[in-house]
Write a structure and sequence with these properties.
The protein has about 260 residues and is an alpha/beta fold. The chain is built from nine helices and ten strands. Strands 6-7-8-3-9-10 form a six-stranded mixed beta sheet, with helices on both faces. A four-stranded antiparallel beta sheet has the order 2-1-4-5. β1 (about 10-15) and β2 form a beta hairpin. The chain is globular. The structure holds adenosine-5'-triphosphate and magnesium ion. Adenosine-5'-triphosphate binds near residues 18, 24, 45 and 48.
Length: about 260
């Protein structure tokens, strides 16, 4: 029998105390099976971005261990397997859309021809054709979000981490991004997504992890959570589990 594949992400006893003494994560454990789609929900300051930053080696962790497909997160293999779209839109203002993607490909060791082909594919997929040679400060907010996602996927990561990918995005683009993210998942990519839109988590994710105060409070399917908390909606679960009001629903569709 073939050996079972290791989880896409395994976090054990992860703690993070920032230099100013803020404890953002405490003895955090989480396992994300290969091919699954996990939503991270929790109020502002819960520790979601800190968790993601630890997985992506953007911060020094205080204690614990992070494995990506069985390899330490700081290994070259793990770095290549992960694609991150950060919460903050962090695009290089001196690069064009196409250059942004090509540089990213180069960073991950893609050959030039392959990177060019993949960049063209991403530009097509995210409807950025008209903007390929435009520098990033000249993009609209929604276009920047699309480019962030395209860049995260450029090197064909096995685990894609999306930190509030639809924040500040209009209804139409949100639906479009959902469609793309769904397709990615159907193709076998493991996805971890944070969002403040409960309906987004429910529509997309297999499972939802509720995080508060740097700790994991519950983790289950949306249905499992509703049963466990005897709640009718995910918003009720949120209030019961985390003790704070659920975030506002996204603005209704613009005409
Ligand atoms: N560089 C930093 N230095 C000190 N404290 C920090 C730093 N980054 C984050 N924190 C603190 O760590 C805690 C967790 O923050 P984090 O950004 O992980 O939350 P989050 O769940 O992503 O919130 P949001 O939903 O607002 O994005 C907060 O108290 C925050 O102020
Ligand atoms: Mg965050």
């Amino acid at each position: 029998m073939p050996a079972p594949t290791p989880p896409a992400l395994e976090v054990r006893g992860l703690s993070k105390r920032y230099d100013d003494g803020t404890v953002a994560l405490e003895s955090f454990d989480l396992s994300v099976p290969d091919g699954s789609f996990l939503g991270l929900l929790g109020p502002n300051g819960a520790g979601k971005t800190t968790l993601i930053s630890a997985v992506c080696n953007l911060i020094r962790i205080t204690a614990g261990e992070v494995l990506v497909f069985g390899e330490p997160s700081h290994s070259m293999a793990a770095r290549r397997w992960v694609g991150l779209a950060e919460q903050d839109v962090n695009l290089d203002r001196f690069l064009t859309v196409e250059e942004t993607l090509l540089y990213h490909g180069g960073y991950f060791g893609m050959a030039k021809a392959e990177a060019r082909k993949r960049a063209a594919e991403m530009i097509d997929a995210f409807d950025l054709r008209a903007k390929g040679r435009v520098r990033t400060p000249k993009l609209s907010g929604g276009m920047r979000r699309r480019l962030l996602l395209a860049r995260a996927l450029m090197h064909r990561p096995r685990l894609v981490i999306l930190d509030e990918p639809t924040a500040g995005v209009d209804f139409e683009l949100r639906v479009e991004l959902w469609r793309y993210i769904r397709r990615l998942h159907e193709e076998g990519t493991t996805i971890v997504l944070t969002t403040h839109y409960l309906e987004e988590a429910e529509a997309l994710c297999d499972e939802i992890a509720l995080i508060h105060g740097g700790r994991l409070h519950a983790r289950d399917t949306a249905e499992g959570l509703r049963e466990r908390y005897e709640a009718h909606t995910l918003a009720d679960v949120y209030v019961k589990a985390l003790g704070s009001p659920a975030p506002e629903a996204p603005a209704p569709a613009a005409a």
